[in-house]
Amino acid sequence: MAQVGLRIAIWVLVLGIAYFAFGPKLFDSSGDGNPFTSDKALYLPPEKPQALRDFERLAGQRDLSDSEQADYLAAMQAYQGIFWRAEGTTIEQALAGFPNQRRERLIDILRARGLSPSEINVFFMVLNRDHPDLLDDRG
Fold this sequence. Notes:
Elements: H1 2-22, H2 50-61, H3 66-82, H4 91-94, H5 102-112, H6 117-130
């Protein structure tokens, strides 16, 4: 048991020395400071189908029946399946004519496509993680 503990301590010591000697770049294969940054274009999510919007509005007013709940879940799963599909308009294309206040303009576009505030938040988390400079002012 002591031998196992000693081996673990030695490995921790070796890795710690390597980390302090070479820094975090030794363990990062991304090539820059952010390991999640991507060169791929990020696309706008598709517009939410009207049937799904109607179900969400109806669910806010009353409890859905079992058949409505099943239809809603099927529609939601179909929509979520195409949410991150890389087709259509890229974020860069959608914001091409807007050098300033790009974040606000993108929020307006996403709201017009029927995204809920929580879906917009998820989209912005991915956008900020993968493309941190995409919404910077260009003016």
